[in-house]
Write a structure and sequence with these properties.
four-stranded antiparallel sheet; globular
Length: 260
Amino acid sequence: MTDLPNNEEMLLYAKRNLEFFIKTFYLHFYSDIELLQAPAQPETEEQRLKRLISEKESFFQSGLVILFNSAEIYLKSIIAEHSVYLLLKEVKDCYKNKSFFECSTLDATELHRIAQSISGRNLSPRFNEIYDILRKERNKVIHLGKSNNKEIRKDFLSAFLIFREEIYQEPLNNLVHCLINDKNMPEQKLVEAKKNYAASIIDMMKTFFPLDDILANIYKIDGKPKNWNVCTNCQTPGKTLAVISKTKSICLSCDFKIGL
């Protein structure tokens, strides 16, 4: 069999998909954040915000596909780490002199369960839950042209936050390095640039998404975050630390957590 995929490259592509996603996310919302600073005329501020969100409908649809593809590749990389042939629907194909990509491979439906069974790894319940949700919505986009889910914004952002944690396994203020063109700038300036990008993206999340509700659902907590503070761990500009209670908090920039 030829053209066998490499599990390490698959994992790298899954991570690069998330980098591509955050680049696209930033480009879609950056100008809107600036626009919201100006007076809303003749619309009200609420009308303007709703209009800007509705204009992003196609991005929410395509973003679901990007995010699901990242998760699917990630799960396949876990399986391929043990044997790439386990990805084949028909094991007998492994001896045939043809490309791996000409063969039928495992359906997406049970990938997360198969990956856990083969690897012995426990994927987080929230990853498994959002994977099932996204698979259904991705199928709607493919077969119907769009997802008709009224909760699409919640699922969209929930998936990114969960996949960043499970797949990318680095905090947002590292992931955003993909937004920086000048990689040769002094180290301190690079660190500050990444923090600034992270702060901007978190501001976009707060503005265009029900972020408090999303965090409450992801971490299965009662009630929304009580307030947002500056994180003393990373000193990212802006309020990036969601304070849930006296014993629970999380920074969306550096991934600092207490009680979660």
